[in-house]
Specification:
With 442 residues, this protein is mainly β. It is built from two helices and 19 strands.
Length: 442
C-alpha cells in the first residue's frame, strides 16, 4: 500500500518575477549551465490536466538512434534543425550538454482556486534546465520550473521533471528503458484547486524480430503517484500501479502492420479499493502515402475492485491518430482516445474520452502558427456504491504564433480558451489565458 507523501510547504515570493529572480537567471546564463527545458507529453484528455495553458512545444528527450530512425508511420516531421547540424559548444568526448532557459508570462481569468471560486491572476514560469546526450543511445534531462502567481488565492511553487531514456541492442533484441520523476503543484480540473503531486514512472520494453513478417513487443510499466493535501475538502488518494502489455505484430507489407496484444495489472491505493485489470487490444499502422498515415488501437479494459462497493467495470479503450502533410510546411492531425486512469480523488477511477484536431502552418517563411481544438469527457466511476458518480465535458481551443531568432532562440504568443461543464456543483467554469514565451536552447 502506498504511503501518502508529506509535501513540504512551497513558499514563494509574490510580485513581478524579474525583480526577485533576475540575479539567479543572470548567474545561470553566465556560467553556461542554464539548462534545457524538457516536457513530458501531456495527458490525452485536457479535462484531467491542469487549468494552466500547455507549455510551448519542447524537445522530448529521445535517443539519437530514434531521431535518426523516426517511426515508419510518422508523417509530420519537426521543423527544428537536427542535432549536430549546429555547433556543439558544450561537447566533451561523446557527451553533449544542451542548456536551455525559457520564460513564460500568462494572464488568466476565471481560473478556479476552489469549487465555485473564480480568480484572475498573472502566471509567470521560469524554466532553466539541462538535456544531456550520453552517447548515441541514452539521454538524461532535468527541468525545474519556478511558477509565480499574482493572485493570492494560488500558491507559488517549484515544479521539477527528470527523465532518463535509452536502449541497447543484442542480436535480434532491442531493449529500452525510460525512468521519470516529476513534482508539481498546479490547479487541476478534477479538484477545482491546487494539488501537490509527486510521480515516478518506469517503462521497460523489449522488441524481438522473429522473421521478416513477425516481431514481438513486450512492455512492463510502473507508475507511482503520491497526492498531498486537502483539495478544498476533497479527500485525495495516492496510487501505485504495475502493468504489462505485450503485442505480436504482423507486417503484411511495407506500409501496413497489424498486431494483437494482451496485458493486465494491479493498482494499490491508500484510501480506496485495490484493483486488478486485464486488457485485450488490436492495433495497426498504415502509411497510405508519404504524406498520409493512420495509426490506431482498440480493445477492452476489464477491471475488478477489492472489498465492498463496485465489484467490476468493463469499458472500451482506444487510441487513433490520422496525420496528413499536404505541403512541406503544412501539417494536420486528428486524434481520438479513450483510456482508464486513476483519479487523485479518493474512491474514483476516471474514463477519459478525447476528440481533437490541429493544424500547423508556416507563414511568410519565418512564423509558425499552431491551432488545436479538443472536446473531451471525463466520467468519474465511484468505486464505492454509496458515492455519486460525476461527469465533466471539456472544450478547449489553443493558438500559438512563434518565430525563431539567433538560430537557437524562439518567441511565441499564446492564447487558450477552456470551458469545463460538470455535473458536480461548483466545478463548472470557463477560463481564458493569453501571454507570451521566450526561450533559448543549445
Amino acid at each position: 500500500m502506498p504511503n501518502q507523501a508529506a509535501f513540504p510547504s512551497r513558499p514563494g515570493p509574490r510580485g513581478f518575477l524579474w525583480s526577485r529572480s533576475a540575479g539567479v537567471l543572470l548567474m545561470l546564463a553566465g556560467c553556461g549551465l542554464s539548462q534545457a527545458q524538457e516536457q513530458i507529453p501531456p495527458p490525452a484528455n485536457p479535462a484531467s490536466s491542469g487549468q494552466i495553458a500547455p507549455s510551448p512545444a519542447a524537445e522530448i528527450p529521445t535517443t539519437l538512434s530514434e531521431q535518426a530512425n523516426p517511426g515508419e508511420f510518422q508523417v509530420i516531421q519537426g521543423s527544428k534543425a537536427p542535432r549536430g547540424a549546429l555547433d556543439e559548444p558544450f561537447q566533451y568526448d561523446r557527451v553533449i550538454f544542451r542548456p536551455n532557459v525559457s520564460y513564460r508570462f500568462l494572464y488568466g481569468n476565471g481560473m478556479q482556486s476552489a469549487p465555485g471560486m473564480r480568480n484572475n491572476t498573472i502566471i509567470q514560469d521560469l524554466s532553466p534546465g539541462m538535456l544531456v546526450d550520453l552517447g548515441p543511445d541514452w539521454v538524461l534531462s532535468y527541468t525545474p520550473t519556478l511558477r509565480y502567481y499574482s493572485g493570492h488565492a494560488f500558491q507559488d511553487g517549484l515544479d521539477q521533471s527528470v527523465v532518463l531514456r535509452g536502449g541497447v541492442s543484442y542480436e535480434k533484441w532491442r531493449l529500452g528503458l525510460a525512468q521519470s520523476f516529476s513534482e508539481s503543484s498546479s490547479p487541476t480540473v478534477e479538484t477545482g484547486g491546487q494539488v501537490d503531486q509527486r510521480a515516478f514512472g518506469t517503462m521497460l520494453s523489449a522488441n524481438y524480430t522473429i522473421n521478416a513478417i513477425l516481431n514481438l513487443d513486450l512492455g512492463a510499466n510502473q507508475s507511482l503517484n503520491y497526492a498531498s493535501g486537502a483539495a478544498n475538502g476533497a479527500a485525495l488518494q495516492s496510487t501505485e500501479q504495475w502493468s504489462t502489455m505485450d503485442f505480436l505484430n504482423f507486417k503484411f507489407w511495407q506500409r501496413f502492420t497489424f498486431g494483437v496484444g494482451a496485458g493486465g495489472g494491479y493498482v494499490g491505493s491508500d484510501n480506496s479499493p485495490n484493483q486488478t485489470f486485464e486488457q485485450f487490444k488490436g492495433r495497426f499502422g498504415w502509411k497510405l502515402t508519404d504524406r498520409l498515415s493512420l495509426q490506431a488501437d482498440a480493445g477492452v479494459d476489464d477491471r475488478q475492485f477489492s472489498g465492498a462497493g463496485r465489484s467490476s467495470a468493463v469499458n472500451p479503450v482506444w487510441d487513433g491518430t490520422l496525420q496528413y502533410q499536404p505541403f512541406d510546411h503544412t501539417s494536420l492531425y486528428v486524434k481520438i482516445s479513450q483510456a482508464i486512469t486513476q483519479s487523485v480523488i479518493q474512491n474514483q477511477v476516471t474514463v477519459n474520452t478525447s476528440y481533437g484536431a490541429g493544424v500547423t502552418q508556416r507563414l511568410l517563411g519565418h512564423f509558425n502558427l499552431n491551432l488545436s481544438g479538443n472536446y473531451g469527457t471525463e466520467d468519474f466511476l465511484a468505486t464505492q456504491t454509496v458515492l455519486t458518480s460525476r461527469t465533466d465535458d471539456n472544450y478547449s481551443f489553443n493558438a500559438r504564433l512563434s518565430w525563431p531568432f539567433l538560430r537557437r532562440g524562439s518567441i511565441g504568443l499564446t492564447y487558450q480558451y477552456s470551458y469545463n461543464k460538470s455535473s458536480e456543483a461548483g466545478m463548472t467554469y470557463g477560463t481564458t489565458q493569453m501571454g507570451f514565451d521566450v526561450g533559448y536552447s543549445y
